[in-house]
Amino acid sequence: MSQTEPDRVTATPAAREAIARLRAAEGRPVMFAQSGGCCAGSTPMCYPGGELLVGDADVLLGEIDGCLFYIDRRLDEAWHQDQFILDVVAGEPEGFSLPAGDNLHFVTRTPVCALPAAPAAAG
Amino acid sequence: MRYVPPGQPDSVVPVEARYENFIGGKWIAPTDGKYRVDLSPATAGSITEVPHSTPADIELALDAAHAAKDAWGEMPAAGRAEVLNAIADAIEKNKEMLAVAESWENGKPVRETLAADVPLLVDHFRYFAAAARAEEGRSTEIEKDLVAYHFREPLGVVGQIIPFNFPLLMAGWKLAPALAAGNCSVIKPASPTPWSILKLMETIEDVLPPGVINVVNGPGGQIGKALATNPRIAKISFTGETVTGRLIMQYAAQNLIPSTVELGGKSPNIFFGDVMARDDDFLSKAVEGLVLYAFNKGEVCTCPSRALIQEDIYDEFMARCLDRIAAIKQGNPLDTETQVGPQVSADQLEKIASYVEIGRGEGAEVLTGGQRAAVGGEFADGYYFQPTVLRGDNKMRVFQEEIFGPVLAATTFRDDAEALAIANDTLYGLGAGVWTRDGTRAYQMGRAIKAGRVWTNCYHQYPAGAAFGGYKISGIGRENHRMMLDHYSQTKNLLVSYSNKPLGLF
């Protein structure tokens, strides 16, 4: 498992508060996994720590107050995004994600940045 | 025409103040008595209240399903087919009511639910009624006196978790084959769309044996997980995003049960130069084929969200498409003239807007749209987004990620090889479209694109009988075809000797 880039994720104050509440409720750290695809794709899923089995196909983006944040390596390459910001917005979470509070769920924000140099074929 | 919103006087959809879970053929209150409000995305106003269930309610539903499974599984196929056909008839009789309910809860225009969602749902049950009747076991004469008989047996009780974009049709896609194969189901609707399936259950409860279908609403983190991890299910199926798909497969592995998952896509829609060889119906159909990215406001796993247009026709073809897009009517989803309704939630709306900003930041050009649509009046608070076209490069995030909104990412290609390279340059492989007047090219491209469904000179058709499912990370398994019966049954082999002679080994 990659441990080389542990500081690619930060959290807004609202996200940190939500994490603190979840940690208190769960009695242990939670974990995050960036999703992709249908429906709630693009949102981070929040689980009790260790719930999702991670492996060599995952990249550890970083840690927020003891909670690890992963992304699928292929998704990471497609997103080509250096920095991720964890935030909280209104609405129920999708999938099996834990809510960030009453009618709240986590979202990932990414600073807008330019497209990296494209390969020659993509004229 | 305009339909009256559900619950208002003269509406075709009566609405109770509160709904319960549907378990064992009865309407059962959630065990801890908690409910939540269900909103319409058109007005952000309340429709009704639905259960906010807990794992205890999943256990009740599993009790009911297990109580029903032997009788249902042993019923002759003709009997099960009769029930599936009765379900189809009941839905057909209530087509308008269900179409309006679906439209109001999801936001999709009623012209789509009347013409597609509900008729397809009806047909789906009839298709699987027929498939159940036509299903045969196989026998093989291994040796003259040794025969292998193969019987299809149901799995028992299955768990099914469905998405918010086609709440009724996705319920049908999952339920019809499961029931046809002799299984009972516990199904969990998506959190944004818990209610229309309850209207469906009201419609069919009189023709359905108790416990065969059980519907439990509530938060996925609690009851979705309680269902997917439950040792009392024999199979789990899911449609949604990739991380939950992984988790579903992980839970299935831990219980050593099968799973099928459909996880979305980023489907290329390829337009070759010859589509413009003549100004005829085919060209008009191809233009519509591009604009279908706005179908169901882009909330479709197979949304043709990447348009690949041959560079020699790009300017003229795109100009025609932009004219067609400019004529799109947004507004009241219950108006049959409305073509694009509101996104399913405020959250989706915000996500779509942020993707347009990401596209701009990466240098994509906004050809049309790009922001929240001001519909005004009673729909001023609805979650409407303008049909949007971005021109850019396939490496951009707006070409790589499923936005789930009416946002098209368009680019050009020079020749077949480049079209194919761009089409396949994605993590996903659910759908694709190929538009050309050249049959050989259509075949070669269709076979070479790494996607489970390649619409050829058409798009967004979902007839029962055409297999649907993903390549690559778009999922595992196929739906919408009688091969689904394989996903919902197991093979019993009887190996029978018709010889009385000992083997002679002992």
How would you describe this structure to a colleague?
The complex is a heterodimer of chains A (123) and B (506). Chain A has 123 residues and is α/β, with parallel strands linked by helices. Chain A has helices at 13-26, 73-79, and strands spanning 9-11, 30-34, 44-48, 58-64, 67-72, 84-90, 104-109. The relative contact order of chain A is 0.24. Chain B contains 15 helices and 22 strands. The model of chain B has no long low-confidence stretch (mean pLDDT 97). Chain B has helices spanning 55-74, 77-93, 95-106, 110-134, 167-180, 196-204, 220-228, 242-255, 281-291, 314-326, 346-361, 397-400, 416-424, 439-448, 484-487, and strands at 21-23, 26-28, 35-39, 46-51, 138-143, 146-154, 157-161, 184-188, 213-215, 235-239, 259-262, 268-271, 306-310, 365-368, 388-391, 407-413, 428-429, 431-435, 453-456, 471-472, 475-476, 489-497. Chain B starts with 20 loop residues before the first strand and ends in a 9-residue tail after the last strand. In chain B, the strands form 6 sheets. Chain B has a 7-stranded mixed β-sheet with strand order 14-15-16-13-12-18-19, sandwiched between helices. A 6-stranded mixed β-sheet of chain B has the order 9-8-7-10-11-21, with helices on both faces. Chain B has a 3-stranded antiparallel β-sheet with strand order 5-6-22. Classes of the chains: A alpha/beta (123), B alpha/beta (506). The interface between A and B is large, with 47 and 59 residues.
Shape of chain B: globular
Sheet/helix structural class of chain B: alpha/beta
Biggest sheet of chain B: strands, sense, closure?
Answer: 7 strands, mixed
Please report the distance between the alpha carbons of the first and last residues of chain B: 82 Å
Round the mean pLDDT of chain B to the nearest integer and report it: 97
- Our estimate of the beta-strand percent of chain B is 15-25%
Main sheet: strand order of chain A: 3-2-5-4
State mean pLDDT of chain A (0 to 100 scale).
86
What is the helix content of chain A?
Answer: 10-25%
Q: Considering residues with a beta carbon less than 8 A from a beta carbon on another chain, report the largest interface and each chain's count.
A: A-B, 47 and 59 residues
Taking all Cα atoms into account, the compactness measure Rg of chain B is 24 Å
Tally of DSSP helical segments of chain A: 2
State the helical fraction of chain B.
25-40%
Order the strands across the largest sheet of chain B as they lie in space. Answer: 14-15-16-13-12-18-19
Q: From the structure provided, what is the oligomeric state, counting identical versus distinct chains?
A: heterodimer
How many β-strands of chain A, per DSSP? 7
Sheet having the most strands of chain A:
4 strands, mixed
Order of helices and strands of chain A: EHEEEEHEE
Helix-strand makeup class of chain A: alpha/beta
